[in-house]
Design a protein that fits this description.
It is built from six helices and ten strands. The protein is α+β, with helices and mostly antiparallel strands. The strands form three sheets. It has a five-stranded mixed β-sheet, with no helix packed on it. Strands 4-10-9 form a three-stranded mixed β-sheet. Strands 6-7 form a two-stranded antiparallel ribbon. The chain binds copper (II) ion. Residues 144, 210, 245, 247, 249, 253, 256 line the site of copper (II) ion (CU).
């Protein structure tokens, strides 16, 4: 009886594994088609594209745990269906009086422990990647206020600026110039960082709790008044990456987005020099030029999806 139950459990496990493989393929292909870099898109299912080592690690950890969840759910579902059908009253009029089975009890204790260990190892590796900060090439201080972000570049001469969400008329003006400016995400002064450089972001707040988040970077850090938290990223691709305050902070919580533009070393050096010299108009021109080029690239990519 027990042997037969174990045999059925084994075939159920094989079926669960097959169902899992199909589900993972479905999730992976949907995520590939419907995810985007830097900002959400209509009918998106997957996460925004990962462009930093931490975001890549978060995505693969997510996929692994998701696979385990699907496998366990399918396995339990198949077992329950089997029990319901095989041991229904009409098919099994005299129920077994078995109350204990040492082997099964050991198995259902040890297997979950092993699953937790399998989850724990990459989980701690990911935590270490997030919090063992590599040597920074650039440090930025982000301060959350009700309801905007202020960004300071302490190792670039200490210049700073506020980043406020653009209003509809400002967005229309940028679009007229050929710059991509998504509603509720675009800001007047973007955070500018060089590509392939370790950037530390020191995050704090000036009034209430906020949270500095950029999904494509895998960065999400609480901004706490009187305290400095830190996150880091190394963006692998140029472009603009958006995020939003992710700690409920009052009536305009939804309207204090974060926009980080990743540029080449040369553009960053030019922009930083203009900011240091307080020639804000020149700095703005440099970034607008890059933004027009980036928007052109996005249009080209969108019209040639097969080239991705
Ligand atoms: Cu906030």
């Amino acid at each position: 009886m027990i042997r037969r139950l174990l045999g059925s459990a084994r075939s159920a496990a094989a079926m669960a594994a097959a169902a899992l493989a199909t589900a993972i393929l479905a999730v992976a292909s949907a995520g590939d088609v419907l995810a985007a870099a830097g900002q959400p898109v209509d009918r998106q299912i997957g996460m925004q594209d990962a462009v930093t080592p931490v975001a890549h690690a978060i995505h693969s950890f997510h996929d692994m745990v998701n696979g385990l969840i699907i496998a366990i759910t399918v396995f339990v579902m198949i077992l329950m269906l089997y029990v319901m059908v095989r041991f229904r009253e009409s098919a099994n009029p005299t129920p077994s009086k078995t109350a204990h089975n040492t082997m099964i009890e050991i198995a259902w204790t040890v297997i979950p422990i092993m699953i937790l260990v399998v989850i724990a190892v990459p989980s701690f590796r990911l935590l270490n990647l997030q919090y063992a900060y590599p040597k920074p090439d650039l440090t930025i201080k982000a301060t959350g206020y009700q309801w905007y972000w202020s960004h300071e570049y302490p190792d670039q001469g200490g210049f700073s600026f506020d980043s406020l969400m653009l209003q509809p008329d400002e967005i229309a003006a940028l679009k007229a110039k050929g710059i991509n400016a998504p509603r509720n995400l675009a800001v007047d002064n973007e955070v500018i960082v060089p590509v392939n450089k370790n950037v530390h972001v020191l995050v704090t707040a000036g009034d209430v709790l906020h949270n500095w988040t950029v999904p494509s970077f895998g960065s999400k850090t609480d901004a706490v008044p009187g305290r400095i938290n830190a996150t880091w990223f190394r963006a692998e691709k140029t472009g603009v990456y958006y995020g939003q305050c992710s700690e409920l902070c009052g009536k305009d919580h939804a309207f204090m987005p974060i926009a980080v533009r990743v540029v080449t070393d040369q553009v960053f050096a030019d922009w930083s020099a203009a900011m240091k010299a307080k020639v804000k108009k020149r700095a703005k021109q440099i970034i607008e030029q890059v933004a027009i080029e980036d928007a052109g690239k996005q249009v080209a990519n969108a019209s040639a999806p097969a080239a991705r």
